[in-house]
Amino acid sequence: MAEPGIWQQRLVEKRFAGGTLSPLDLILFLLSTLLIWLFLRKAHHATRGPLSAIPGPRLCAWTDLPQGYWKITGRDHEIMTNLHEKYGPVVRIGPKHLSYIGTAEIWADIYGERVGYAKCLPKDKMLYDLIEDCFGWKDSLVTAPDELVIRKLVVSSFSPRMNNHFEPRFKGWTKKMVERLVPKAERAEIMDLSKAFQCLSVDLQTDMILSVDAESLKTLDYPPTKIVVNGSLQGAALAHALRLFSPTIGRAVQKTIVNIPHLRRLLDNFASTLSKRIDARLANPPPTGDVLTEVLRKTDLSPVPISKEQFYSTAKILTVAGPEAMTAAMNTIGYHLFRAPSTFQTLVSQIRTRFPTQEDLSLKALSEMDLLTAVIKEGHRLYPLPPGILPRCTPKEGAWVQGVWIPPHTVLGVHQWATYRSESNFHDANGYHPERWMGDPKFKNDRLDCVQVFSAGARRCPAELFSWCVIRLVFASLLLNFDIELADEACDWPQQKSYFIWRTRPLMCRIRPAEKKAVVA
Ligand code: HEM
């Protein structure tokens, strides 16, 4: 076949020679010129552009199709880890997409606050708008620009003072979880402990934020929120992949998916239940106060008004996103702890010695237990949420990362799974070793500060302290009251797929009353 340029030249020669250039010929000529120009531009960007020096699969420099495909497979975390092993700490995974193995400095460069231009790199709209579109959470804290006042209000609602204030409430809910598990333990049942984590998180957080009992622990089954989230994950990954390729097609597919009657009904019920709960809460302020009390109090003092829509969407996202993250965290912490008999036994004996009864558990005392802290950190490291990248976008001035100038409108981020499974950061990176967090000399070269499961900078998780308090209480309560072993059915737990967040597998465990039983007063 003749090259396109030669073919064009012939067309022009032939037509002009005969003096008969028809409108169709002219259109063909212009179209082919345009295509050639687009091709050359793409080729230049792929092979000579500013990102061309960064290694990666060749096809990725030309198109987003490979990374879109990886997202749909649910195996993005493993594929990316292999790519980093092959190409190094920075990989070009799309024409304008970069993935990094994190270090403390890289986290700060990408997610930290910057001086001189934007306060921090903005979130990539391709992903975050999708979350907003799917659930209709317009301008919530997650998608609002960073300087917005709403973030300050939410952060102050999760302050250390508020955590102390809420301690009795946290303890009340963990005790309720224990009470619900006692009959199962007495029958030595095999059960999905993940359901208990999810129910506790939903009930505790709905109570803490809206002073409403969501009643999930009553059934010990997944609440409707989980069904909606699980049902939407793969569809959202498909829409995201298509948006990378063509935002218009991606949006159209996403609209079709969310309008599938069954899913639409679930989403609508879910949205209206949440709205009704917020309305009811606003109509009847609770005497004891909750997160919303704090947000409302600060809103009154704020010089910048918060729109009703933003207020509602933020309250909704707090009651939904929180439990998902907490459940995923508790699943990985539990799974890894229960399959490490010696760590498990040591922690059990530390807890049962220090706290004779459930009532003796206290946040302060638990925060002093180094092994408990190490077990939580190691669980987070092995299955972080989200496992992939929290994508950020460089502004029109571009940005400097590790002394390298990254051009404008490049999407980049630290890949958590690849970072935490990298042997360059951790000795035996795939192994479970809580002792690496306790100064064991075997792990003296570990780069512990590259683990930032709550992210870093101005948009880091506002509920980190809260999450620590609740997770410590939950595990202390479980180990104090029950003997727990993983059931055979849990053997495929690690084969989880990730669609931005984990699609969690059941955590099947056999629970029995603790041999030296603690008193649930
Ligand atoms: C172990 C549990 C948790 C983990 C690992 C976690 C992790 C994270 C991460 C990595 C981010 C940054 C997301 C991004 O940049 O896109 C984030 C943001 C956020 N998290 Fe958490 N989170 C947890 C628990 C919670 C809980 C319990 C709540 C609410 C009650 C919560 C509310 C939020 C909100 C509202 C944001 C958005 C903040 C912003 O954009 O300014 N998280 N979280």
From TrEMBL:
Checking Gene3D superfamilies in the record gives: Cytochrome P450
UniProt KW keywords: Heme, Iron, Membrane, Metal-binding, Monooxygenase, Oxidoreductase, Transmembrane, Transmembrane helix
Any one GO molecular function term? iron ion binding
Q: Which Pfam families match?
A: p450 (PF00067)
Residues engaged in binding heme: C461
What cofactors does this protein use? heme
Q: The organism sits in which domain of life?
A: Eukaryota
Spans traversing the lipid bilayer: 20-40
Q: Which PANTHER family match?
A: CYTOCHROME P450 (PTHR24305), P450, PUTATIVE (EUROFUNG)-RELATED (PTHR24305:SF230)
Task: Name the family.
Answer: Belongs to the cytochrome P450 family.
Q: List the protein's name.
A: Cytochrome P450
Organism, by scientific name, is Bimuria novae-zelandiae CBS 107.79
